[in-house]
Every structure is written in C-alpha cells, then in structure tokens.
Amino acid sequence: MASSSSIFGRMKDPGLMSCFSPSISTHRCRKQALNRVLAVMAPMQPQRSPATTGSVKHAMSMTEKILARASEQLHLAPGENVWVNVDVLMTHDVSGPGTIGIFKREFGQNAKVWDREKIVIMPEHYIFTSDERANRNVDILRDFCTEQNIKYHYDIKDLGNFRANPDYKGVCHIALAQEGHCRPSEVLLGTDSHTCNAGAFGQFATGIGNTDAGFVMGTGKILLKVPPTMRFILDGEMPKYLLAKDLILQIIGEITVAGATYKSMEFVGSTVESLNMEERMTLCNMVIEAGGKNGVVPVDKITLKYLEDKTTLTFEPVYSDDCARFIQEYKFDVSKLEPLVAKPHSPDNRALARECKGVKIDRVYIGSCTGGKTEDFLAAAKVFLASGKKVKVPTFLVPATQKV
C-alpha cells in the first residue's frame, strides 16, 4: 500500500490537503480524516510486457487503406486529415499554366519539381485550335517541360498531319490508363474533375485545383481529409443493350448530384466483375457528377490483364475488409434495368430512354472520356447497322485517343 501522504496528495478537498500539509500534522487532523472514506487504492502491479500478437487490427475500406499507405499510417478513419504522398500528378493545357504559375510564385522561378518522372502533362483541350491565347497555354506547357525535363509530356508538333504525332495521346483520362500511369493502390491527382476515372484500377484518384497542384508539384504531398465510403453492389447479368453509362446514371438518379458529396464510392458485385476496364472507368469517371471525392473498383484478373503490358512498376492491391464500415450501401439488380437518359439540365434528371421516344434529336455527338472509348463505338456501330446504315442527323464521332 502507498503511504497515507501519497494517497492524500491526490485528494481535491482543500481542507484535508491543508490538514495533512508537511508543516501541520496533528492528532486532531488525523482523527478527522479517518472518519471519512477517502479512496481505495489497488496494490501495485508489475509492469506488463507488450502483446506479442501485434497491433489491434482496425477494419478499413479500400480508400482508407490506400490513404493509410500513402500517409505512412497503420490506420485511418473517415474525417481524419493527413499528409499524403502523391504517386502521380497530371495536368493539361487548361489548368497547367495556372498550376505552373503558382509553383513558380511559391517555390521560386528557378525551383525544380519534386519528381520529374511523376508529373504527367497532356495538352488536349486547345491543341487543334487556331486561337492565339489558347495556343499560348500549350506554349507555356512546352517551355516548362523543357525547363524541368519532364519525362511524360505528350505533345503534338505537327498540326498539319495528325498522324505524324505519335507522342500526342488525346483525352487525358483515357490516355493515363493506356500509357500505364494508373496503378493499383497508388494516389493519382489531376487538375481535372474527372481524374476520378482512374479509380477503376483500384487506386485513389481525384481532381484538385491549381493551388493544390502547384503545392504538389513542389513537394509531392497534399493534405487530404479521409472520406467515408458508400458501397454500391451491382449484381445480375447485364443486358446487351446496357452500358456502364446506364449503371452510373441509375445510381446518380437514386442518390442525386449531391448524394455522394466528399464521399468515396466503391463499386462491387458480379456485374462490376464482368465489366472490362473501359466500362469500369466510366463508372468511376462520373462519381464527380454525384459530388463524390473518388470512385474505386477492386482489382481482379481483368485489371491485372489490362496492366500486363502497361507498366513495369510493382504494386500491391488492397481490398476493403469484411468488417469495414460503409456510411451507406445500395444494391441493384442490373438484369432488371433499362437504358437511361440524363435529361437537361442535370445528370440526376434521369428518365428511361423509352420515355423520351417523342423527343426530336438535332445533333449527335459520340465522344469524350465516358463516350469516346472503343466499347462506345462498338455499341454505336450496332445501332447504325440496326437502323439500316442511314444517319438522319449530323453525327460526330470523336475517339478519345489515337489508340481508340
């Protein structure tokens, strides 16, 4: 047992404390104290040695695991703010000049980027325009890439002959995947809201602004808040007349354009497992239309097969734990879904295609990051063949990349 003085040293009663101060220790005071129950102290215990079974395991989602690795943490939970090490930063001819300007302003005119092999620069929006101001954006990218010796600068040099430019790729989100910059469990950031496209590869990918990108360009780090995860389980055989665009429009129609604000959207289920990588990219690409921070699909044999000839860098896929907590969970029987349309002026203004039968179409555009992939043109070809090979309205087909 500890001595009386050590017990009373913990007492909060000022009367008793003064009674047992070192300078006053009388029989009257001791008698007064003994009439009251003060405390019960357990006997001293020997110090316990650390457990040999390792640290306590906390269940985490895919996104939490990826950010934990990137922030060198054992465990993360939604709402935590962490400094994350970035694996790839992408910018293009719209946001690139602004990002470069902020980088030079904050780090110095002669500063060097944190890693010239982890920055990907893709001119794609203004590359074929004759506007001088737009061309100036592309010139700024070229000068910067030369100055910094950026390894991955996908430029175009001959505007008169499109095919004479093997380095030019096309839409950045599809080109990132085709050129091997999308890898499982990595963190990929881009100055474009649809950077979340890369989540199809089981990685954390999201869009950031010029200020954040300028900071990443100089440090390789970013401060992120860990998002909670919503899980979408899509099961059932997918009808041949559906595409992944129908699936994501169904989801957005259910949760609205604000339904996933600053949340991770994880896609699982037998239907997702049956999709090729292009279709999975469509799912993840459009999470931003629901306000999502990122979208993610678990890595499987289809992912690994796609990556076989794309990258030589090593990676280790992660998966959500069985006991991981999801803020919400939605289940869909895909076999019962129908083709959908997003009517003006919002992606969640969902309607069945057959409900729009009487709407007159003036012009058709097939392209962009979710509509310009090989899968999309194969689907369009089937429609053209079924219609008797007659196009009744102006129709524009724009492949997303040269490889498409």
TrEMBL record:
Location of the Aconitase/3-isopropylmalate dehydratase large subunit alpha/beta/alpha domain: 81-350
Pfam families: Aconitase (PF00330)
InterPro entries the record matches: Acnase/IPM_dHydase_lsu_aba_1/3 (IPR015931), Acoase/IPM_deHydtase_lsu_aba (IPR001030), Aconitase_4Fe-4S_dom (IPR036008), IPM_dehydratase_rel_enz (IPR050067)
GO annotation, biological process: oxoacid metabolic process
Keyword Disulfide bond applies: no
Organism whose genome encodes this protein: Elaeis guineensis var. tenera
GO molecular function, one term: metal ion binding
Alphabetical UniProt keywords: Iron, Iron-sulfur, Lyase, Metal-binding
Highest rank taxon of the organism: Eukaryota
Protein name in the entry: 3-isopropylmalate dehydratase large subunit, chloroplastic-like
